[in-house]
Amino acid sequence: MKRKLLGIIDATTYHEDLDDLLTHRSLAALPYAGRYRIIDFVLSNMVNSGIRSVAIFPKMQYRSLMDHLGSGKNWDLNRKRDGLFFFPSPVVGSYPKGIGSFDLFAANMDYFYRSTQEYAIITNCYTILNMNFKPMLEWHMHANCDITEIHHQDGRSLEMYLIKTSLLMKLIETRFETGYSCMKDVVSDIHNDYTVCQYDYDGYAVKIDSIESYYSTSMNLLKPNVWQNLFNNDQPILTKVKDEPPAKYLKGSSVKNSMIANGCLISGAVENSIVSRGVKIGKGTVIKNCVIMQKCQIEDNCYLDSVILDKDVRVESGTHLTGTAGAPFVIRKGTRQGALMNS
Amino acid sequence: MEKKRCVAMLLAGGKGSRLNALTKDLAKPAVPFGGKYRIIDFTLSNCANSGIDTVGVLTQYQPLLLNSYIGIGSAWDLDSKNGGVTVLPPYSESSEVKWYTGTASAIYQNLNYLKQYQPDYVLILSGDHIYKMNYESMLEYHIEKRADVTISLIEVPWAEASRFGIMNTNDELRILEFEEKPSEPKNNLASMGIYIFSWNILKEYLEMDARNPDSSHDFGKDVIPRLLEENKKLYAYPFKGYWKDVGTVKSLWEANMDLLEEDCELDLFDHDWRIYSVNPNRPPQYISPDARVMESLINEGCTIEGKIDKSVLFHGVTVGKDSTVKESVIMPDATIGSNCFIEKAIVPCDVKIPDGTVIRSFDDEIILVTEEMLKALYSAY
């Protein structure tokens, strides 16, 4: 297995619907579930499946993504042989239209030439799931497939593809003759020359492509069957280590049905919410149905319902902010909210 | 090897026998503390935060977990090409196996490790204490005083003074007398077991001590008294702040409870002096709709369905429905079933407490829950 599968993560996707949360970062680096970035899920899936060589293709605003991944040490990918590779797109401007753009790969053909792994798995960066790819590879080999596309049991394509590395290289090199610009083009052409198979995944898998899906899937995490499916000790989701102390619950705090990350100092009430690392919640403050990202400071006597606070937001004492389940109130990164600003 | 101005030697072989079952399989410095740390994290983080990048860690008693925990020191950013952490276990020579018989002999047997770095100063630490201290400031003090040896001291309650090494000094803080665990202490200024030696003095006196067949090879009992006898310049470095020797089940419990105070003197949330540890990489803690958490410290990977009051929970702890955990310390991956009541207890790693168990103390004793205790409790039914 070790030398059998290459991991390729297409991190070029941009969703305009997520604009408010993506001004400083790429989609792959969007914080999720209190202590993770979205890319941690597919990346950890790869590492847990025994993949030792992962190539990440980012585009634009990849500073936060690079800062997060570093040398790959937290995923045990800082290796002498293989490891983590980062291939920013050499072309500025337009975004590729499908997952696994051959133009993007063509700019880094050397990686494929140098790799000895027989198979490659190509994934997007915005799916939240905890899947082991090993059984799929065995199934793919056994069924003599050329390309396997992962589908969710309910029929949705998860936009992840398994393919022989040599065939992938051929597709990249012949892209002008065939007219195929990405993996999706190949599998959706019913006249293609390949055996395209479909592998059904029955675990939890959701796509983050809008504020609404970001918010609703975040709220989903509070359902025990969802978080138990995503988080287990055998296939841990790995992320950048922050050395925060445990969360501290102070006098007057009351927390219910929530996920709380380390480094939080909580004096107020929290209900149905995801609270990320290093957040401070003041006395008399009520947080309901919210997603609070890293290092936000919510002072005393605030009331927040159905709000997404991006990183480093400071909410001053006495502020009331309310959104709805369908349209959560989004506060951009690093801003300050005063009591009189939104009343 | 690059020359180093100051090298730290961390004595981590302590058995900590008064911690009973907690140190049956691991050395005292490896005992879990504060919801996510092990005791040794404080000393190693102090080194990292003080800019001391070369640390020899001397292990002897039950070193397996400690050795693998320290690894190459990357958790404390001490995995550098020059220096970094080196675990120094006892070794055998052609004629004999040289166990570390005392604090001084442990350092003496590793003089070759120190010689590689040609240090000007050697900082000797113990991995048994909980505190935050800038060793760099202590070193500056040592240099300023032109001392041969500097010993950090802390004021302890008079009632406890006879448990420590007590120093009598003059007004300039020059040490005139050092008494190891005196029955009638003359003052309450206790040694914290932290020494800075100028290299030549350390080498000379350790070699002298090693040749002395009557010595117990201990810094406090043998080396320091000898230095004082010979009129060397020993200075006390006064330390103010939180410092605790968590040598007993009670004091370990108390130190954990200290962390729950609103203005805890030992601030774990200070980003300028982080306490580093090996990260377990678990998901955020889940607090269920039925749970209640009050004045507690809870680490990642916990699943809480019961009531937690004034307690410290390490990573991966599960507390079932309708259970109450009060004024207790629950160590990594312990499981508490439903309908339990646990009060004033320490539950060690991986212990599983069955549904409906009641553990409470009727005096002020802290209960250290063990698998044997649970077996005895349940075999009665």
UniProtKB/TrEMBL annotation, chain A:
Pfam families: Hexapep_GlmU, NTP_transferase. The keyword Repeat does not apply. Residues 246-320 form the Glucose-1-phosphate adenylyltransferase/Bifunctional protein GlmU-like C-terminal hexapeptide domain. Transmembrane segments: none annotated. InterPro entries: ADP-Glc_PPase, GlmU/GlgC-like_hexapep, NTP_transferase_dom, Nucleotide-diphossugar_trans, Trimer_LpxA-like_sf. Residues 28-147 form the Nucleotidyl transferase domain. It comes from the Bacteria. GO terms for biological process: glycogen biosynthetic process. Belongs to the bacterial/plant glucose-1-phosphate adenylyltransferase family. This is Glucose-1-phosphate adenylyltransferase.
From TrEMBL, chain B:
NCBIfam families: glgC, PRK05293.1. This is Glucose-1-phosphate adenylyltransferase. InterPro entries: ADP-Glc_PPase, ADP_Glu_pyroP_CS, GlgC_bac, GlmU/GlgC-like_hexapep, NTP_transferase_dom, Nucleotide-diphossugar_trans, Trimer_LpxA-like_sf. Pathway: Glycan biosynthesis; glycogen biosynthesis. Alpha-D-glucose 1-phosphate binds at Y100, G165, E180, K181, S191. The lineage of its organism: Bacteria, Bacillati, Bacillota, Bacilli, Bacillales. Keywords: ATP-binding, Carbohydrate metabolism, Glycogen biosynthesis, Glycogen metabolism, Nucleotide-binding, Nucleotidyltransferase, Transferase. The keyword Nucleotide-binding applies. Signal peptide: none annotated. Its EC number is 2.7.7.27. Residues 8-261 form the Nucleotidyl transferase domain. Involved in the biosynthesis of ADP-glucose, a building block required for the elongation reactions to produce glycogen. Catalyzes the reaction between ATP and alpha-D-glucose 1-phosphate (G1P) to produce pyrophosphate and ADP-Glc. Residues 291-359 form the Glucose-1-phosphate adenylyltransferase/Bifunctional protein GlmU-like C-terminal hexapeptide domain. One of its GO terms (molecular function) is ATP binding. Belongs to the bacterial/plant glucose-1-phosphate adenylyltransferase family. It holds the Pfam family NTP_transferase. GO terms for biological process: glycogen biosynthetic process. The record marks Q60, W99 as: Could play a key role in the communication between the regulatory and the substrate sites. Homotetramer. It is an enzyme of class 2 (transferase). It catalyses: alpha-D-glucose 1-phosphate + ATP + H(+) = ADP-alpha-D-glucose + diphosphate.
